[in-house]
Amino acid sequence: MSSLIPVATLGTPRIGLKRELKFALESYWSGKSDQLTLLQTAKDLRAVNWARQKARGVDIIPSNDFSFYDQVLDTSLMVGAIPAIYGEAADLDTYFAMARGAQKGHVETCEHGHVHATGQGVLAQEMTKWFDTNYHYMVPEFNEDQTFKLTSLKAVEEFLEAKALGYHTRPVLVGPVTYLKLGKGVANPLLLIDRLIPVYVEVLKKLSDAGADWVQIDEPVLVLDGDSETTAALQKAYAVFAKEVPQISILLASYFGGLGDNLDTAVNLPVAGLHVDLVRAPEQLEIVLAKAPKDLLLSLGVIDGRNIWRANLPAVLERLKGIDGRGNLQIAPSCSLLHVPIDLNLETALDADVKSWLAFSLQKMDELSVLSKALSGADVAAELTASADAASARAASPKVHDAAVKARLSAVTPDQAQRKNAFAIRADLQRQAFNLPAFPTTTIGSFPQTSEVRKARSDHAKGAIDDAHYDAFLKTETERAIRWQEEIGLDVLVHGEFERNDMVQYFGEQLSGFAFTKHAWVQSYGSRCVRPPVLFGDVSRPKPMTVAWWQYAQSLTDKPVKGMLTGPVTILNWSFVRDDQPRAESCRQIALAIRDEVSDLENAGTKMIQIDEAALREGLPLRRADWQVYLDWAVEAFRLCSTGVSNDTQIHTHMCYSEFNDIMDAVAEMDADVISIETSRSKMELLDVFKSKKYPNEIGPGVYDIHSPRVPEVSEMTELMSLARQRLDDVQLWINPDCGLKTRKWEEVKPALVNMVAAAKSLREAVKV
Ligand SMILES: CN1c2c(nc(N)[nH]c2=O)NC[C@@H]1CNc1ccc(C(=O)N[C@@H](CCC(=O)N[C@@H](CCC(=O)N[C@@H](CCC(=O)O)C(=O)O)C(=O)O)C(=O)O)cc1
Ligand SMILES: N[C@@H](CCS)C(=O)O
Ligand SMILES: [Zn+2]
């Protein structure tokens, strides 16, 4: 029997089994509880998390994988990259001001009589997607004179906290090169590496003084296309660490893909260990084994940290045959478990078959434990057989395969993905039909999901209120929203999405082929979480999903109400998807289901249908060579669901992110009549690409940053619109917020939208149209 290969995790979910961190944060932010309470909740969560891992047989347990909001923001605080507007203090309130923005002079008195100042009237830092996940990080901001200094000892404090509880942990840091590459504000952030390295050296020394021997440094940039500057920055940083802090062994973690052209760089850096993702890139094992020096510890990411399928353990062992005889190994999930829910056992209502095919973070730790035992020759035959049996049962299950769906898909013809006429013709017809003012105003779909709305839904789910009461409640909310939109003078209305728990989950719950969970929360940003539906089988739409809500809303008003759908690419990208068929195939199935809904909406009289593709950009593969294939099938899926309508039905789409350069041609090919996008934090800069590409269709650039509680002034919005007008023709422009308003409070939304309508009116007067 060979010696046991240690099991490691690279990071774990931090929100808590019952989302304790979410509730503690939101309670603190609203002034209902104090900082000590928040700190204690966080401490308790960390303790539970460490204990759980220990109990599940994890040998190498991380620390500093906890975060109050985001690990990249933690890094900004660690290295003192705090823009001057947030002040000098590297304290928790500065941290939250960077994360969320703060209203000028805004103080609240909580029920205990404490006064809570929420900051100095500053915008939040920009937030964007972490690689190709639905997790958002806070974009570091640098300036040309940027200096760094150690301002937060969180990594050391959490190491010591774990140590005091008896856990010798491996602290995790976001790597300096990844950190810089994710930043903005200077032409080339990597040029700041010389200034940043000393701060990391200081942290590593302090960790060593505290008793750490290994530190995990995450450099997911290693799975992006390599370039000489990144390689040089990596070589420089890790050479200095090896020289200045030789007592610390560094595990360099790559994840979300293969090392590809960075492989030689990675295996030759002066680090003690390298983590490789063998789920996204199983083929790299052989070459990594061949090229890695024997004294380089290899951490093999063999269990999927991005999806929830139970592993076929005998198949994993088969793939690991090549490691025979190599010492110095660990096994681990492919990446941090942050991206999967915590515990499958909470899902008591899941279909038993589907449940038997799944593994969440704790079950993945169990799987690693079994693998480790199997690799050491211990008898785990029963566990291995159970795992293989589950895999075979899933492959053969009639719940997964639907011949009618497969037949419909294979009969799709190219004309089904083509509008009847070009945009110019459609636009004329639509302008005549709608007769909207210049710079029409609208919102993106959702209105505040207040605690009353959530409570009603939760009461309904528990059976505490019946269908009729729930329906009546939602109708009242919808009517109130319609009346209010009319009152403030919005031009194109929305029903408010009060009936939806989430824009993806809501559809997943109504489509065949999806299972949904009750507790499988995954952090999306800050305190916000999602329960991604589980796409396990062929997809179809048993009955209309949104038509009745649209009909009800439209019956209340003469103004146009948009039909509101989530697009196939977004449903796919924000679900846990099948790994037994290509993503493109699953996406086309969803597209046909949404096409049915579009058709039913149109037949019911809907003249404007918005199909949100908020996740199209984040699904872009990390390697450029893979982009076009993805974009081709993603665009085709959008067209398949959206083009079956007549010329004067206006198709809207919405994308709330700020990276369009790479996907602009694809966005144009989607051929939506109107696209609303997120632009407020980037000061309309991202419209440059719409201008340079001469994007012909209509655009609503966001003028209201909905991620912040701040209420934008009229002048801020008119200024943003004048920046938009420098880039696009007036006839193309709509006025709307960056995204839906579900996360905001009515007291923020109301003045903000009143200001937005005022901004539109003043613009119309100024340009006399
Ligand atoms: C637009 N975005 C979305 C992304 N991904 C999605 N899947 N959906 C999105 O909308 N990615 C990018 C962006 C930004 N990301 C997010 C992510 C999450 C939220 C958000 O608001 N999340 C809510 C949870 C939403 C939800 O599922 N609500 C349910 C359950 C509500 C709940 O907590 N119920 C309680 C009981 C309540 C009571 O009794 O009072 C419970 O279950 O215990 C619902 O409304 O029914 C969040 O709060 O985190 C926004 C943007
Ligand atoms: N219609 C959705 C889009 C969010 S990306 C909403 O308004 O919340
Ligand atoms: Zn959005």
From TrEMBL:
Quote the record's binding site residues for 5-methyltetrahydropteroyltri-L-glutamate. Answer: R19, E20, L21, K22, K129, R528, C529, W574, E618
Sorted keywords for this record are: Amino-acid biosynthesis, Metal-binding, Methionine biosynthesis, Methyltransferase, Repeat, Transferase, Zinc
Q: Kindly report, in one word, the top-level EC class recorded for this enzyme.
A: transferase
Domain annotation Cobalamin-independent methionine synthase MetE C-terminal/archaeal: ranges: 439-761
Q: Which InterPro entries match?
A: Cbl-indep_Met_Synth_N, Cobalamin-indep_Met_synthase, Met_Synth_C/arc, UROD/MetE-like_sf
Work out whether the entry's keyword set contains Repeat: yes
Task: Fetch the Pfam families from UniProt.
Answer: Meth_synt_1 (PF08267), Meth_synt_2 (PF01717)
On whether Calcium is a keyword of this UniProt record, the answer is no
Q: Which residues form the active site?
A: H707
| Protein name per the record | 5-methyltetrahydropteroyltriglutamate--homocysteine methyltransferase
List the source organism.
Answer: Asticcacaulis machinosus
